[in-house]
Amino acid sequence: MNNPYFDLLMFARGPLFDLALLVFVAGILIRIVEILVLGRKKDFSKAKGKPVQQGIKTIFTRTLPRPGAIKANPITIVGGYVFHIGFFIAFLLFVPHIALIEALTGLSWPGVGRVIIESATVIAVIAGLALLYTRWKDPVRRKLTTWVDYLVLILSLLPLITGYVAVNKLFGDPTFMMALHILSVDILMIVFPFTKLMHAFTFAMARYYNGSIQGRKGAES
Amino acid sequence: MSATAERGVNALREQIDAPVASFFSSCVSCGLCADACIFFQETQDPQYTPIRKVELLRRVWENEYTLFGRVKSMLGLGNTITEEDFTEMERLVYDSCTMCGRCTMVCPVGNDITMMIRKMREGMSAAGHAPVELIGAAKRHTKGNSPMGDLSKAIQSQVKHAIADTGIDIEFDKAGVDYLVILSAQEIAEYPEVIGAMAQIFAKAGVTWTISSEAFEATNVGVQIGNRDVAKYLVTRVVEAAEKLGVKKVISPECGHAYQALRWEGPNLIGREYGFEVVHIIELLDQLRAEGKLKTSGKDTDKITFHDPCQINRRGGINKEPRRLLNMVAENFVETDDAGTMNWCCSAGGGVGANERAGDLKNAAFQLKKRQFEKVAPDKIVTMCAFCHHTLENALEDNDMDIEVAGLTEMMAEYLDDED
Amino acid sequence: MSSSPLLPKMMKAHGVSRRSFLKYCASLTSLMALPPAMAPRIAHALETAPRPSVIWLSFQECTGCTEAITRSSAPSLEELIFDSISLDYHHTLQAASGYAAEQAREEAMKEHHGKYLVIVDGSIPLDEPGFSAIAGISNLDMLKETAEGAAAIVSVGTCAAYGGLPQANPNPTGAVAVSDIIKDKPIINVPGCPPIPMVMTAVLAHYLTFGIPDLDELGRPKAFFAESIHDRCYRRPFYDKGLFAESFDDAGARAGWCLYKLGCKGPTTKSVCATVKWNDSTSFPIEAGHGCLGCTEPDFWDNGGFYKPLSAPAGEYRRMGQAALVAGVAAGIGGGYLAKKNKAKAQADHETVDAFTLEKEESES
Question: Hey, which residues does B251 pair with through a beta bridge?
Fold first, then answer.
C-alpha cells in the first residue's frame, strides 16, 4: 500500500525537483550567459566619471526609491519592499529551507524562530495581494500587465501560502500540504527562467549597465 | 511589409546589445516609470508609460536575441512587427518623449529606458516614421550647415556684431588655438549675445579660441531623429574641422542634445576616439572660476531660479557647476522643486519642440513647469541650453507669465569683473 | 467459541484484580481517544466477549513485532489480553512444532471458520514462492488459505501493513503487503517497526469490544495515527524557536534541540510515539537523541534517506545540478553566439541612409 500524499511529496522532492533544478539552473544560466556573450561595443567616448565603480555602486543604491516616489505609488513601492523582504525572510531564514540550500550548495547559516518566519510570511502574502490588487486596478499597471505577470505573482505567493498551511496544519493532510508546498516551489522554479522572475538575477546587470552608462558621463544614477 | 519597414526592423536588430537584453530581462512591469514621465504626469494617460514606448525593440530582442524567444517564434508564437506597429508607435516614440531621462533614474531594476528610446528611434527613423519636421531639418542641415538652412552669412554677421559690441577680435579658422567654439543654430539665430559673452570671458581668462567657418553648428538632428547615419555624417563635420584646426578642445555650447551628440555619441558614431577633448561651456567656465580666471563683480538682485537642461545635467552630469557660477552673480537664487538631477524637462526637448503634431502634448507638459515656476515666482529663469531657453520663453509667453529667461554664459559675462 | 472461558474467569486465574482491570480499561479508553464514559463499556465488553480464535502468521519479518508485543510491560493485563483470545497459531510462541503446529492452524480454521482473527507480521514475497515458506507452504498460499475464513485481518508492523523493509528498493523478493493480496476482508493496519506494544494490544481490545475501529486512508486506526509525531514532540519548542542540532554530538544535540536537520521525519509521520512512548512509557527514539525514521509510513526506507532533512531534495539533484550548470552555460554560449550572429548579419544588411532617404517610400496603392 502506498501513501499517495507521501508519493506526491517524494515526487515533488525527487524527480520533479530534479527537473525543476535542471530547468531553473540551466534556464537562468542560458539567460545570463546569452546576455554576457552578446556583450556591448567598446565606448570610444572619453570617460568623465568612473563607469565601473558607479555601475557597481548603482547595483546597491538603486534599491532605495527616489524621494517622493513612495507618495506617488505607495502600494507598488511599499508593497514591493514588504513582499521582497518578507519573501526572503521566509525563504532564507527558515531552517528547513537552509537545510535545503545546504544540501544543494554546502552553504549554511543560522535561522530564526517561527514567530518571525510566520509573521514575515503573512505580511509577504498580504503585500503580494496588494501588488496583485494594484496591478489589476491601476490603469498604468493594468495596461502593462500580461497574463504571465499575474501568473508569476500568484505562483510566487503559492509557496508562502502552502508553506504556512503545511506548517500550521490549517487544513488538509500535513504531508499532502507539504507536498503541495514543494510542488509549488518546483513549478516556480520551472517557470522562473521563462518569465520576469528573471529580474531576480538580471536586475544587477541592468543596474550595473545603467550606472556605468551614467557614470561614464559623470552623471548621477 | 514595405522595404522601409523592413529597414526599420533591421535597424532595431542592430541596436540590441547586452544592456538592452538585461533591461528587458529585468522589467517587472511595475509601472513606476510612468510617474517619472512629464507626459504621463500631465495627461494621466497610461499609454505614455515610458517602457511601453520601446515595445518594438523588446519584441525584436525577445524574438531574435533569446533562445527561448527563438523557440517561441519557431512555434509561430512570436509577436512580430508590422508596418502598423511603426505607425502606432510614432506618437509614443517622438511626440510624447523628450528623452529627458527621468524614467531611467527611477526604474527600480535600473533600466535605462531613455537609452532604449534612442535605440527605438533608430528603428522608427529607418522605417520612415520620423516626424517630417525633423526630417526637414536633417535635409537642411545636410544641404547647408545648420538645421535652419545655410547660416554661413548669419554667423559671419553675428560675429561681426560681437566684435563691434565687445571690441574683442574673434578670428575664424585660426589653427593652433586651444579651443574651438561651436554654437547651436538657436544661439546664432536667436541668442547671438552668447558669442560676445564668451569673447569677453575668454579674453579675461586668456583662453585662445576660434570658430570654424565650415563647422560652426553644434546641433545634430540625427541624434534627435535617432538615425546614426545622419548623426555620424553631421558630427563628422565638427570632428574634421576640429582636427584640421588642431585645437586641444572643442567647447560644446549651451545646447542639450548637442552635448550628447558631440561628447558622448560622436566617438561611437565615428568608431574612434577624438584627437581632441570635448568640454561643455559651463564646465569650462566653472574650471576658469576654480582657477581664478573668471571673476565677477556685483550681483543680480532679481529672484532667480535655474532650469536644469536634461541632457546637460541628468544625462550629462553637469549639476554643481552652474550652481557655483550662478551663486557668484545671483543674490537671490531659489531652486524649484525637483531641481538638479531630477528636474523636469522644459517640455519640448528631444525633437518634440519641432514636431507640430506634438503641440498639444507639449503645452500639457509645460503645465507642470508652470506650476513649479509659480510656486517659486522668480523674476528670472536662468538655464544653460538655448533650446530650453527658447522653449521656456515661448511657453511662458503663451501662458501669460512675465518671467525673463537668460543663458548662464551671458549672465556670467554681464557681471564680469572689469578690472585687470 | 463457547468452549473459551470468559475474561473474568481468566483474570481470577491470573491473579488480576478488578480494580487494575478497570484501570486498564480507562487507560485504553483514553489511548483510543474515546470519551471517559466509554471505559465501563469497554470493561463490560471485555468481560463478556467470548475469546475469539487468533491465527498469527509470520512471513518475511524479523520477529521484531513479536518481540515487541511480548515485551509489553505492566500492567501485565496486556498479556492477559492475549489470554483473552485464543492464540491458536503463532510459530514463534507456540509450543507445538512441525506437523502438529500446522495441524493446530488447520483445526482452528476449520472450527472457527468465518470467525477467527488473523494477525500477520511480515511481508509476502511474490517473485519466488520459495523465498519464504512455512512447512513447505509459501507465504502467499498460506495467507490466501488462512484469510479465506477470517473475520478480519490485523497487519501488524510496517512489513505486513505496507511491505516494509523487504519491499525497500530494489525489493529483491517482490515483497508486498497483506492488503495487496487480500481484498475481500477487513484489514486493520498497525504499522510501526515495530508498532508500539500498547497500540497493538489496544487495537486488539478495540476489535474485541467494538469491532473494526475507525481507520484512516492507509488502514490505520485513527485513534493512534491521526497526529504527527512532530505535533506532540517535546522538542517542538526548539523547532519553533529555530534551534536545531547540526550533528549528533554538538551542543545543540546535547541541549535537546530539534533534530529536523539531522533527518527527523516527525513532521510527516503519524503515530502516538511522542505521547504513549515505549518501554512502559519510558522514552521514544527522539527522546533517545535520534530523529524519527518515519516507520509508521509506507516506503519509509525509501523516503529520501534517514539522515537527510525532510526539506532536502531526495533525488539525483547533485548530478542534475551539475548537468544543468554545464548545459546552461553551453546553451547560453550557443544562444549568445546566435544572437551575435543575428546582430552581425543585421549590421551587414545595414542600408546606410541620409536625410533624403529617411522618408517612408510611397506605397504602391
Answer: B181, B279
Name C58's bridge partners: C121
Provide CB contacts within 8 A for B211, sequence distance 6+: B155, B159, B170, B172, B173, B180, B181, B182, B183
- By the CB < 8 Å criterion, does C240 face chain B? no
C-contacting residues in A 143-172 (Cβ below 8 Å): 169
Average pLDDT for C142-165: 96
| Cβ contact B322:B282 at 8 Å | yes
Are B3-129 and B292-414 equal in CATH topology?
no
Residue A60 falls within a domain, yes or no? no
Which one is the CATH code of B292-414: 3.30.70, 3.30.499, 2.30.30, 3.40.50? Answer: 3.40.50
| Residue A94, C-alpha cell as written in the block | 527558515
Q: Is the peptide bond before C170 cis (omega within 30 degrees of 0)?
A: yes
Contact criterion met (CB < 8 Å) for A210 and B107: yes
| Residue C300 confidence (pLDDT) above 80 | yes
| Torsional sign, CA C210, C216, C221, C223 | negative
Phi, psi of B304 (to 5 degrees): -120, 140
DSSP assignments along C147-208, one per residue: HHTEEEEEEEHHHHHH-HHHHSTT-TT-EE-HHHH--SS-EEEE-SSS--HHHHHHHHHHHH
Q: What type of residue is B259? A: Y
Half-sphere exposure of C59 (CA within 13 A, CB side): 38
Q: Does any domain span residue A54? A: no
SS3 at position B206: coil
As a CATH number, domain B3-129 is 1.10.1060
* Distance (Å, whole) CA B200 – CA B203: 5
A29 reaches C (C-beta below 8 A): yes
Q: In what order do the strands lie in the sheet with B277-280?
A: B209-211, B179-181, B249-252, B277-280
Give the closest residue to B115 by CA, choosing from B31, B32, B27, B51: B51
C77 falls in which pLDDT band (50, 70, 90)? Answer: very low
Interface probe with B: pick from C358, C362, C364, most Cβ of B within 10 Å: C358
CB contact A22 to C (< 8 Å): yes
Neighbour tally for C168: CB within 10 Å = 14
Angle at C270 between CA C265 and CA C272, to 5 degrees: 110
Is residue A29 over pLDDT 50?
A: yes
Instruction: Please indicate if any CB of chain C lies within 8 Å of the CB of A43.
Output: no
Query: CB C353 to CB B70 under 8 A?
Result: no
Sequential pLDDT tens for chain B (420 residues): 788 899 999 999 999 999 999 999 999 999 999 999 999 999 999 999 999 999 999 999 999 999 999 999 999 988 899 999 999 999 999 999 999 999 999 999 999 999 999 999 999 999 999 999 999 999 999 999 999 999 999 999 999 999 999 999 999 999 999 999 999 999 999 999 999 999 999 999 999 999 999 899 999 999 999 999 999 999 999 999 999 999 999 999 999 999 999 999 999 999 999 999 999 999 999 999 999 999 999 999 999 999 999 999 999 999 999 999 999 999 999 999 999 999 999 999 999 999 999 999 999 999 999 999 999 999 999 999 999 999 999 999 999 999 999 999 999 999 998 876
Helix (H, G, I), strand (E, B) or coil at B306: strand
If one counts the domains in chain A, the total is 1
Distance in angstroms (rounded) separating the CA atoms of residues B52 and B31: 9
> What pLDDT was estimated at residue B86?
96
Q: Which domains does chain C have, with CATH numbers?
A: 50-223 (3.40.50.700), 229-302 (4.10.480.10)
CA distance C203 to C154: 9
C313–A9 CB contact, under 8 Å: no
